[in-house]
C-alpha cells in the first residue's frame, strides 16, 4: 500500500513538472537551433495546440543577444497579420525564455516544392499571400531579410504563414545614409546589393528574395545555383538567370522586374499590386483583431451597404425613422451594468471624477442619451473621417484607413449601464499611433459626444435626472 501511494505521489509530481508554468503540456520537439528549441505543446485549459520556442538565457547572455531577442519580440507584436505566425505571449524563468506561438500544422512550403514545381494557380496563391504579409510588414517599418521557402509555413487550410523574424530589422536601425549595412540572409536568396556590402534598402532586398521564391515555386529549382558559393554569388551579382520554357511571357517579365540587379529600378509593392499576372484572382485580405483573435471581413461592400441602410434615414418619414431607431434599440441586448466595484476600478483612488477623465490611451464619458443614439453618433463621427465601423452588441470598433508604422488607428468603444437613465461610454485605443488617437479624441470624438449630450439635456427636464446622481458632472466638457 505504501509503495503504491509513493508511486502515485511520484507520478503526480512528474505530471506537474511536465506542465510548463502550470499551463502547457509539452509534446514532441519540432526543431532546434544554436540558441533555441521549438516544441509542440497544448494549453491544458483551452486544449489549443501551440508552438513554444525555448531559449537558454545563459547562451543568449554569452552570445550578446539580449537586444536581438527584445527586438524580435517587439517586431512580432507589431506585425500581427493572418499570413504571419503569431506570437501569443512571452514567459520567463531564471534560466529560460519561452515564446508561446501559433502552431502551424502544415509544415514548410519548402517540403511541397522539394517534390517538384507547383501548378501556376497554386504558386500564385502562395505568392499573393507572401506579398500581402511583406507589404504589411514594410508599412510598419519591419523588414524580414531572410525570406525563403523554409521560413514559409502552411496552416491546415493551406494558407501561408511567414515565420522566423530572427534576422529581421526595423526602420529605427537605419543609419544616417538611410541604408542598412548588416550582411545577412541565405546565400541563394540574398540580393546583389547585400553582396556589394555598400549599404542597402531592406525593403528592396525583401522583394528580391520574393522574386527568387516565385521562381522556385514555378520552376522547382533556384534561378541562381552553383556548387561553388562564390560562383553562385557572381551569378547573383550579374543577375544571370534563365526562365524555363513553361513560364508565360507575363510571368517572365514580372520576374525580370523582381530580379533586377539595380534596386532603384526594381519593382515596388504598389507596382506588384497592379501587375496583371499577380492580380489574377487576388483578394486583398481585410481583417481586424477582436479579443486577441483575427476576424476576417468577408464582404466589406455588403457590410457597408447594410450599415448605410441602417444609419441613413433620409428616405424615411419622421415616424418611420423613430420606429427604426426603436427597433434597433430593442434588438440589442441590455448593456452590462456597473456595480460599486466596477465604478471604483474605473477611477484612481475613490474619486468618481475618474469616470469623466481622459488620460493615457483611454477615456470615459457619461451620458443620459439612449444607447441607440450613442451608437449612431459614433457611426456619424466615424463617417466624417472615413473610418470603418464594426458593431457587436454594446461594443463599437472604429478603424482608420491610413497605414502608419504602428498600423491603422483602431478605437474600441464600450457602453456600460450606470443607472436606468445613465450610461458610461468607455473609449480606448486598440492599435495605431498614440498622437493620432489623442488628436482624434480631441477634434472628433469628444466634441461629437458633447453635442449629443447637449441635445439630450435640452430635450430632457433637469428634474428627470435621478436625485442620487444629480451631483455628477453632466458633460464631459467639464474635463480639461
Number of strands: 19
Provide the number of structural domains: 3
CATH H level, superfamily name of the largest domain = Kinase associated domain 1, KA1
CATH topology of the largest domain: TATA-Binding Protein
Mean pLDDT: 78
Helix content: 25-40%
Structural class designation: alpha+beta
What's the CATH class of the largest domain, please? Alpha Beta
What value does the Rg take, in angstroms? 28 Å
Distance between the termini: 73 Å
Low-confidence stretches: 11-17, 299-331, 347-359, 461-467, 469-480
* Gross CATH architecture of the largest domain: 2-Layer Sandwich
Beta-strand content: 15-25%
Sheet having the most strands? 7 strands, mixed
> How many distinct helices?
16
- Overall body shape: globular
Give structural notes:
This protein has 480 residues and is α+β, with helices and mostly antiparallel strands. The protein is built from 16 helices and 19 strands. It has helices spanning 2-18, 57-62, 66-78, 109-114, 120-139, 192-196, 202-219, 229-238, 249-258, 269-273, 276-279, 300-311, 318-331, 340-346, 371-384, 434-459; strands at residues 19-20, 24-32, 36-43, 49-56, 87-92, 96-102, 142-143, 152-154, 160-162, 169-170, 287-290, 293-296, 336-337, 358-359, 362-367, 388-392, 395-399, 410-417, 423-431. A hairpin with a 2-residue loop joins β14 (358-359) and β15. The protein is globular and about 80 Å long. The N and C termini lie far apart (73 Å). 29% of the residues are buried.
Amino acid at each position: 500500500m505504501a509503495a503504491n501511494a509513493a508511486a502515485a505521489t511520484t507520478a503526480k509530481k512528474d505530471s506537474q513538472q511536465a506542465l510548463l508554468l502550470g499551463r502547457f503540456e509539452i509534446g514532441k520537439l519540432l526543431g532546434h537551433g544554436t540558441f533555441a528549441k521549438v516544441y509542440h505543446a497544448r494549453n491544458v485549459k483551452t486544449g489549443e495546440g501551440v508552438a513554444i520556442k525555448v531559449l537558454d538565457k545563459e547562451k543568449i547572455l554569452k552570445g550578446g543577444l539580449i537586444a536581438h531577442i527584445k527586438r524580435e519580440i517587439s517586431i512580432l507584436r507589431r506585425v500581427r497579420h493572418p499570413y504571419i505566425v503569431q506570437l501569443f505571449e512571452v514567459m520567463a524563468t531564471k534560466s529560460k525564455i519561452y515564446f508561446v506561438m501559433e502552431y502551424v500544422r502544415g509544415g514548410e512550403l519548402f517540403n511541397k516544392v522539394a517534390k517538384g514545381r507547383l501548378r501556376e494557380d497554386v504558386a500564385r496563391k502562395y505568392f499573393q499571400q507572401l506579398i500581402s504579409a511583406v507589404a504589411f510588414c514594410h508599412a510598419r517599418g519591419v523588414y524580414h531579410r531572410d525570406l525563403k521557402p523554409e521560413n514559409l509555413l502552411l496552416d491546415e487550410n493551406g494558407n501561408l504563414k511567414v515565420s522566423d523574424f530572427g534576422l529581421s530589422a526595423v526602420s529605427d536601425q537605419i543609419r544616417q545614409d538611410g541604408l542598412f549595412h548588416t550582411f545577412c540572409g541565405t546565400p541563394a536568396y540574398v540580393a546583389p546589393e547585400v553582396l556589394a556590402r555598400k549599404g542597402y534598402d531592406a525593403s528592396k532586398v525583401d522583394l528580391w528574395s520574393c522574386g527568387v521564391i516565385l521562381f522556385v515555386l514555378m520552376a522547382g529549382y533556384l534561378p541562381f545555383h552553383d556548387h561553388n558559393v562564390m560562383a553562385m554569388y557572381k551569378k547573383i551579382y550579374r543577375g544571370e538567370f534563365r526562365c524555363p520554357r513553361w513560364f508565360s511571357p507575363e510571368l517572365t517579365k514580372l520576374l525580370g522586374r523582381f530580379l533586377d540587379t539595380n534596386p532603384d529600378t526594381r519593382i515596388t509593392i504598389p507596382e506588384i499590386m497592379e501587375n496583371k499576372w499577380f492580380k489574377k484572382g487576388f483578394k486583398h485580405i481585410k481583417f481586424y483583431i477582436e479579443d486577441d483573435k483575427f476576424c476576417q471581413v468577408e464582404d466589406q461592400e455588403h457590410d457597408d451597404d447594410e450599415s448605410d441602410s441602417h444609419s441613413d434615414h433620409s428616405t424615411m418619414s419622421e415616424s418611420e425613422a423613430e420606429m427604426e431607431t426603436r427597433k434597433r434599440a430593442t434588438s440589442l441586448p441590455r448593456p452590462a451594468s456597473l456595480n460599486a466595484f466596477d465604478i471604483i476600478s474605473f477611477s484612481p483612488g475613490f474619486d468618481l471624477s475618474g469616470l469623466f477623465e481622459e488620460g493615457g490611451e483611454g477615456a470615459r464619458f457619461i451620458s443620459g442619451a439612449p444607447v441607440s443614439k450613442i451608437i449612431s453618433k459614433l457611426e456619424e463621427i466615424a463617417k466624417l473621417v472615413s473610418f470603418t465601423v464594426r458593431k457587436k452588441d454594446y461594443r463599437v470598433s472604429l478603424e482608420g484607413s491610413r497605414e502608419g508604422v504602428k498600423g491603422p488607428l483602431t478605437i474600441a468603444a464600450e457602453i456600460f449601464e450606470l443607472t436606468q437613465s445613465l450610461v458610461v461610454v468607455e473609449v480606448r485605443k486598440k492599435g495605431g499611433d498614440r498622437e493620432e488617437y489623442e488628436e482624434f479624441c480631441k477634434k472628433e470624438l469628444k466634441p461629437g459626444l458633447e453635442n449629443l449630450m447637449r441635445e439630450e439635456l435640452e430635450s430632457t427636464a433637469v428634474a428627470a435626472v435621478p436625485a442620487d446622481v444629480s451631483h455628477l458632472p453632466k458633460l464631459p466638457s467639464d474635463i480639461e
